[in-house]
Design a protein that fits this description.
It is a single chain. The protein is of the alpha/beta class and 375 residues long. The chain has two domains: 11-30 and 277-373, Aspartate Aminotransferase, domain 1, CATH 3.90.1150; 38-271, 3-Layer(aba) Sandwich (Aspartate Aminotransferase, domain 2), CATH 3.40.640.10. The model has no long low-confidence stretch (mean pLDDT 96). The termini are far apart. The protein has helices at residues 11-21, 38-48, 62-76, 92-103, 120-126, 144-150, 173-184, 213-216, 225-228, 243-256, 262-271, 277-294, 323-334, 362-373, and strands at residues 25-26, 86-89, 109-114, 130-135, 155-161, 190-194, 219-224, 237-240, 301-302, 310-314, 336-337, 339-340, 353-357. The strands form three sheets. The protein has a seven-stranded mixed sheet with strand order 2-8-7-6-5-3-4, sandwiched between helices. Strands 9-10-13-12 form a four-stranded antiparallel sheet.
Length: 375
C-alpha cells in the first residue's frame, strides 16, 4: 500500500522534460544556468586534493557550523549554539522532511499556506500527519482569519515560506505581529519557516524568524546554500532550532543521511569568508529588472516580485485556457517553459498565472522575453 498514492512526478521534472523534448528555453525549474563564482571554483580545486573525503560530524563540519553561526549573528543579531541548535542538511528539502518527520506524529495537523512548495504535504503524509491547506489572500499575503480558524487542538505545526515560492511575496512586520498574536494563544503549535531565499530580496528586506524572539524558541528555520550561493546541485542546507527540537530532528537525520557531502561543506566554510550576500541580492535585482523590462511590450501582466528569483505573470488577456494547458502550449508552440501556479494549490486554484525563473543568463532572459512578446 502506497504512503503517497496521489503523488506523481514533480511538476518541475515534468516541465523540464517537456522543455528538453521541444528544445525550449527552460524558465520553469528554479536553478541558475550561469557559472558559479570563480572564487568558489578556486577553493574547490585547491581543497579537492586535501584529506577531506571522509565523513564529517553528523551535525555538520564544525568549521562550517561556526561560519553559519557568525552569518546568523551578522544578518539577524541572533547567537546560535553550534553544538545544540544547528544541523547541516543535504539541501533544505531534506532538512524540512527530517524536521516534519521528527516532530509530527500520526493524526497531528499541519497548516500549509497555499500556493505552497510541493514537498511540504508529502513530508506530512509520510509522517502520518494531516495536511491542512489554507489559501493566502489574492495578493499572496497571509490571511490570518483563515489561519486562526484552521487551528485546532490537533494542530502541531505551521509551515511558512518567506520569501515565498512561487510568488515572490515577502512577509511584512505587521504579518509577523499578527502571527505572533495568534500563536501566543496556541502554545502547542510549532513553526517551520522555510527561508531558502532569505538573501534574495529587493525593495523590502526579508524578515527572518531568527529576528523574532516570540517565535524562534518554537521554530525550525530552514536555509539553503544551494539558493544563496547558486550551487543547487551541491544540495547543502541547514536548520536552526532550539535544543529540545533539534535533539529530535538529529535522531531522524542520523539514520537518513548521517552526514552531508564533506567536500561541499569544507568549500562553503571557506567561501563564507569572502562572499557578500548583498551583492547576490543586487545581482538578482538586476536580472529581475531586465526580465520585467523585456516583458513590458508583451501581453502578460507582470506581478510584483519582492524576493526569490521567480516572476509570476497573469496571461488572462492572452488565453482562457487553464494554466497547465497554456504552460504546455507555451513550450510546444513558443519555446519557453514556465510552471503553472495551480499546481501549488491543494484544490488546483487557477487564476491564469505562470511562474518564470529569472536566475538565468541575460542572454537567456532576453531571448525568452522575445518569444513571449509575440504571443
Amino acid at each position: 500500500m502506497s504512503k503517497l498514492p496521489n503523488t506523481r512526478a514533480s511538476i518541475f521534472s515534468v516541465m523540464s522534460q517537456l522543455a528538453n523534448k521541444h528544445n525550449a528555453i527552460n524558465l520553469s525549474q528554479g536553478f541558475p544556468n550561469f557559472p558559479v563564482d570563480p572564487r568558489l571554483l578556486d577553493i574547490s580545486e585547491r581543497l579537492l586534493t586535501e584529506n577531506i573525503h571522509q565523513y564529517t560530524s553528523m551535525a555538520g563540519l564544525p568549521s562550517l557550523l561556526v561560519k553559519i553561526a557568525l552569518l546568523t549573528e551578522k544578518h539577524y543579531q541572533r547567537r546560535v549554539n553550534t553544538t545544540t541548535e544547528m544541523l547541516v542538511t543535504s539541501g533544505a528539502t531534506q532538512g524540512i522532511y527530517t524536521a516534519i518527520n521528527a516532530l509530527v506524529s500520526k493524526g497531528d495537523e499541519v497548516l500549509i499556506l497555499d500556493p505552497s512548495y510541493d514537498s511540504y504535504e508529502p513530508s506530512v503524509l509520510v509522517a502520518g500527519g494531516k495536511p491542512v491547506r489554507v489559501s493566502l489572500n489574492d495578493d499572496y499575503s497571509p490571511n490570518f482569519n483563515r489561519i486562526e480558524t484552521a487551528i485546532t487542538s490537533n494542530t502541531k505545526l505551521m509551515v511558512i515560506n518567506n520569501p515565498h515560492n512561487p510568488t515572490g511575496k515577502i512577509w511584512s512586520e505587521a504579518d509577523f505581529k499578527a502571527l505572533e498574536t495568534i500563536l501566543e494563544k496556541h502554545s502547542q503549535v510549532l513553526l517551520l519557516s522555510d527561508e531558502v531565499y532569505e538573501y534574495i530580496s529587493f525593495k523590502h528586506s526579508h524578515i527572518s524568524v531568527n529576528t523574532r524572539p516570540k517565535l524562534r524558541n518554537r521554530a525550525i528555520i530552514a536555509s539553503s546554500f544551494g539558493k544563496s550561493l547558486h550551487v543547487t546541485g551541491w544540495k547543502v542546507g541547514y536548520l536552526i532550532a532550539p535544543e529540545e527540537l533539534m535533539k529530535e530532528i538529529k535522531k531522524i537525520h542520523q539514520f537518513l543521511v548521517f552526514s552531508v557531502n564533506s567536500i561541499s561543506q569544507h568549500v562553503i566554510a571557506e567561501y563564507l569568508d569572502i562572499v557578500d550576500f548583498n551583492e547576490v541580492a543586487k545581482m538578482y535585482a538586476r536580472k529581475k529588472r531586465l526580465f520585467q523590462d523585456a516583458l513590458k511590450n508583451s501581453r502578460f501582466k507582470v506581478l510584483p516580485s519582492e524576493g526569490t528569483y521567480f516572476q509570476v505573470v497573469n496571461y488572462s488577456t492572452i488565453s482562457k485556457q487553464n494554466d497547465m494547458d497554456f504552460a504546455k502550449e507555451l513550450i510546444t508552440k513558443y519555446g519557453v517553459a514556465a510552471i503553472p501556479i495551480s499546481v501549488f494549490y491543494k484544490d488546483a486554484t487557477d487564476k491564469h498565472m505562470l511562474r518564470f525563473c529569472f536566475a538565468k543568463t541575460d542572454e537567456t532572459l532576453i531571448e525568452a522575453a522575445k518569444k513571449l512578446a509575440v504571443i
